[in-house]
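Entry 12.
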Amino acid sequence: MVFSSLLFLFVYLPIVLAAYYICPRKWRNLLLFVVNLVFYGWGEPIYVILMVISTIVDYTCGYFIDKNREKNPKKAKGFLIASMVINLSMLGFFKYSGMILKTINLIPGVDIPLPQLPDLPIGISFYTFQTMSYSIDVYRREAPVQKNVITFGTYVSLFPQLIAGPIVRYKDVAYQLDHRRETLDDFTKGVCIFCVGLAKKVLIANQMGAMWDAMQNTGQDNGWLGSWIGIIAYSFQIYFDFSGYSDMACGLGNMLGFEFLKNFNYPYISKSITEFWRRWHISLGTWFREYVYIPLGGNRKGFARQIVNLLVVWFLTGLWHGASYNFILWGLYFGLLLVIEKLVLKKWLEKCPAAIQHIYALFFIVIGWVIFYFSDDVGGMSAMGAFLGSMFNFGGVVIGNNALTLLMSYLPFLILACVASTPLGVKLYEKVKAHASAPFLQTVYCAVVLFLSTSFLVSGSYNPFIYFRF
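Predicted 3D structure (tokens):
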């Protein structure tokens, strides 16, 4: 993973950018389509075929949806249904077939062999949702049909956000695919945003992940405070890992002339669970709202139906994250919290001091990350229960020696994570960006981040990729 990261930074990316800007504009989508497939095939050559099939299916369905929408609406709807069934079937088979069969095998006397599949196709949940958005947007007349299969393939396989998001809806980039114009200002902005994401991932997320992993080795001996510190480190890891990748994707998009929507907006400054989910993984929340919640009726069919719709959406949100029951539990946990906020807590919270609101939100967010972490791969429900018990065992050890040593060792990174999870850095930048020295400071910042990130990658072997598996 470390070698691949360095190879991407110093070989693949420079070659792609050079070739892209040398290439005549009319051939740039074709070039991107080719390098996208090379990028994806780099990690999983077998599953390139799956992506190509997905591209052809949705391109074809989109074409016939547009062709029959006026003269034969039923046929157009049939192609929309075909697109959704094929996409969800592929996602279900590769991602959830093992989980479903394991559940069925719990029935006495049933023993169905599990499919022997390679690893889960990287980013399949992301690009499946993207291709489905195309068929739906065309059917709704919210986006024009794409008649060039290469251009559509470029959208499906666009390497900046292919493996870890954000989820880019077709209607958001339909115009850019054919009419984008690259500028030096956009390229410069893209480099800066990319470096912000790189710093989040390598300098913060990896360090928080290493701290969390080290704390897992001593488990119950960490004490209740040590358990809280450990899961807070994981909370920072998953945020800076995913938001770092999203920033890098947005920065790379800017370098290539694309503008992707922001995926994170400082979620840990939230004062409610509702606000948290307006700030966390915005592209996923938007997708489920527009393509599931609203079509189910949203809040238009009475309060009881709204509650049901919310729980359906949050069940699917949890399931989207992985083939393990803890993810479903995690989704329903947040769904229930949102319902309770709407029914009971909203008016009460609004009367509380801001600090109380913030503590309330962070408490339930951190508990949510406990549920999220303990999948079948790391002990499942029993391990989750044991860890939650250690967090609230106030009569036991406060903090173990190992936890205290790790806290002292990683304290600078914890402080950095706390500060970086707030808008403080952006506010400081806004004050100096109009100054004559701003371009120089930007250059120094990017150079320092690149140097430090490279040093950390070269000197260490710890570089986990969390969200690419979704």
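Annotation: Residues 186-469 form one domain. The chain has 18 helices and no strands.
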